Amino acid sequence: MLKKVPNPIDRHVGSRVRMRRMLAGVSQEKLGEGLGLTFQQIQKYEKGSNRISASRLQQIAKMLDVPVSFFFEGAPTGDMPTGGFSDAASSAYVPDFMGSSEGVQLTKAFVRIKDSKVRRRIIDLVEALAEEGGENA
Questions:
Q1: Per-residue confidence (pLDDT) for residue 68, from 0 to 100
Q2: CB 17 within 8 A of CB 60
Q3: What is the pTM for the complete model shown?
Q4: How far apart are CA 98 and CA 52, in angstroms?
Q5: Which of 4, 22, 32, 60 is deepest in the core (most CB within 10 A)?
Q6: What is the C-alpha to C-alpha distance for residues 73 and 90, in angstroms, rounded to an integer?
């Protein structure tokens, strides 16, 4: 029996639901209760294994206080370039990272830093560490 692979758009929308839910500090259980669903159904939505209907997406957007369009920002379009260098390929991991607990923690902490010079220095530090790590890999 073949395992069905989730549609890339469904995966993207689900990861955006997860990211926004985590940034809002809402549990899967709480979101599910508000929608009349189990947390397992929310998990399936977030993984992209179950497609979210338009009306359900509208409800989720209202509960998480974002426009429906938020869930489609950065979605794969299917018309990616076939040759050459593509930034899209190298940044494909970004939605996965932002949907992780580490991504959410880092984002929440980073946006609390008010001094733009300090934020810039943190970015420079992380980039330097990433370059250093790349050389050792």
A1: 95
A2: yes
A3: 0.66
A4: 20
A5: 60
A6: 17
C-alpha–C-alpha distance, residues 133 and 137, integer Å? 6
- Residue 82 has a pLDDT of 46
Give the pLDDT of residue 50. Answer: 93
Distances (CA, A) of 83 to 76, 77, 79, 88, 89: 17, 16, 12, 12, 11
Query: Please, what are the averages of pLDDT over each run of 10 residues along the chain (137 residues)?
Result: 79 92 92 96 93 96 94 75 46 66 84 90 88 66
Query: Which residues contact residue 18 at a Cβ distance below 8 angstroms, ignoring those fewer than 6 apart?
Result: 46, 99
Tokens of 65: 């206080």
Residue ranges of domains in the chain: 1-75+94-99, 101-137
* Ramachandran area for residue 83 (φ above 0: left; ψ -120 to 50: alpha; else beta): beta
Q: How many residues does the chain have?
A: 137
